[in-house]
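pinned: reference chain
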Amino acid sequence: MQSLFFSEKFAETGNFCVRGPSKYAERPLPGRRKGDYLMKLNRILCGALAATVLSVPALAAHIMPINAEVEVPTVPEFTLAQYKRLSPHRTWGTVGEIGEDCLLLNEGGAEAGELILHISEQTLILDAVTGEPHALADINKGDSLTVWTSPAVTMSLPPQSAAQVILCNIPADYSVPHYAEIQQVLESEGGKVSVLTSDNVILKLDEATELVAYKTRNMVGLDELKPGVRVLSWYSATTRSLPSQASPDKVMVFPYEYAGWLTAIAADQVSVNGEALSVPGYVKGGTLMLPVRALAEALDCEVLWTTETPDQVVVNRAGKTLYTLTLGEDAVAEAGVTYLAADELIDLHNLKAEHRWPLEM
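pinned: its structure tokens
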């Protein structure tokens, strides 16, 4: 089995491509920003399609009934790196071979071929009908699977990728649930919530929707849904609107992996966990700069500065140093306020950047 799965090469190789709907996505992408090529290509194709559609007003009016609750944003002065982060890639197929910590998937559909899936402790293996957790030992050769993998795939033959979510025990002709991350909470009042997910679908939820927590099966409140929450949603139909909408019967909610979320509409309209920052940011060269102290304290962190080390700012959380900034190198001071690029603060504090429609896909 070792000669088939190339396990030792998976972690070492730097030859990755990004999976996508275009044949160009299979080209190797050099450098640190391996997803940039695909993103640029996608934006070009989307722009061309939009120009074609909008040139026929009647057709555009027919296929673009944008829901009133989705506000079409203006072009911002900045962008955030997290907006360009590629979502997990969805695929499906049948199991060929099974190794100790990997399996060979015979992919179906347009991507017919073989794919080696590497499975770790972080991989979620779930029953497609109940959402109950399973182990790799519960999967057998010939089983049908629906899988969400890392968007990065090795250039080996067969290609290899890390499995993030695996749905098993899929009945024939069954509409499998959908795995996604909440990008924005659009509406939350009167016992109803609408959320925009990473696959560009608005989920419309109410008190009749079955909301359960992963593993514990505890009930989850609608008020617990926020940007960054990962969900598995059971629905079989979506509207033909843009973005599409669905009303799931059941939603499974996974543990929150972020320390909070940040919303940045404009430099002076930035909030953390729904609360506006006490000090506005500013834009420099297309980069959003945010006040370190205001953001850190909004997350219950302590910011320390002393005259003994006037060029350093220390940020602590729960009594432990989270990070240290050096003025002039990492951060800049403006009118007595220390600023740092929003992208760096998002990473340092493990924040989810709320992403509004239309999503960069």
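why pinned: The helical segments are 2-5, 7-10, 36-54, 57-63, 292-298, 342-348. Residues 1-9, 21-66 have pLDDT under 50 and may be disordered.
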